[in-house]
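Now for today's protein.

===
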Amino acid sequence: MKKLLMGLLAAGLVALMALPAMAFDSEFGGYWRTRAYMQKDFTGSDSGASDVQQVDTRARLFYTAVFSEDFKFVNGFEWNQTWGDTVGGDIGTDGTGIFRIKWSYANFNLGPVNFLVGLQKRILHRGFVFDDDFAGLAVTYKGEGFQIPFIWMKAYEGGVGKDKNDYDVDYYALKPDFTFGGTKLTPTLMYIYSKDASKWDVTNGNNEVRVWLAGIDVDTKMGASSLWFTGIYEGGDFESIPAKKSMDMEAYLLALGGQFDMGPADIHGQIFYATGDDKNTDDYEAFFIPKGQSYYWAEIMGLGVFDNQASSNSCADKISNIMAANLGVGFKASDKMKIKADLWYAKLAEENDKGDDELGTEIDLRLTYSLMKNLNLDLIAAYLFTGDATYKGTGDEDAYEIGTMLSFSF
């Protein structure tokens, strides 16, 4: 089946390129990486349960048919292999289950209104709320110094049959942005609704879901300094199946970051706080997005470059029940070499059942070297001084990670 699909894809691309040049223009791009890394003691113990040492490859190919300035057909494809696995990385490298269609959408303008229809990507609130691909629609009105997008994401389709529509899960978002000199303001309203979300695996503990989020992103640049801020409040209610009662949502997230450039060097940092659930109240207070949230931060606690796993009990890229702070420096040693060092500290916003909240202090080092134009080599090392809230098992140990990545884009 996979070989047939790949054959049809290749034949389709050849057919498109064989059409008369005057019909449309073709744009190609892509990204490729190969990573080799070792992750040790991510459980905060010496059990070895989470230890991994492996090599993997990712390839992405982008194709856009440009019919005019106002009409494009955009596609993105992805292949992933772990070297030596049985789905494409073994001898023969012709396994199954490794080909993905990431994007396929129509991008067209009708006057001042832009339409994106199909499988597409979207980022909301820097990834604190959403950073993923989805099937849906984005309609954007573009004015002078501002634009107002309305976004509909089909998160889950209930299927065919009587009352199956009740199981649908939909995201709706309004995300205008306004630019004033060197400052950009992006207020965002989002609504998540399902009459009965019990069939969707990520919310199968809930029936009716009516959750809304209201927030704002602020980005400003002042000379050599750039600052950003994100604030989000989450409200609404959902019907909990286990508790058999309606629960009110009361959660929030605050984040602040910035960078100061000093010639070849920079100082950067950020801090964010997302509420956890206080089990002593009747409300649900953990900041929560059912699916699509992704904000990468520290290498070990926040996934980072080698995003195979995060250390135990960290929220990883699904930011909730956490307070984290970062201070780092960057240095451009030459036209080909960049060095970056970061210090992270993180703790849980609400203590765990054992009364612990400290996840740990992490040091991340990254060296990027340009072997030639578009081809980069990264060397990365990270060490986590694990806190009590990270430990899982016996024989407490610190976690560490070492790896390298070769990558290029075109």
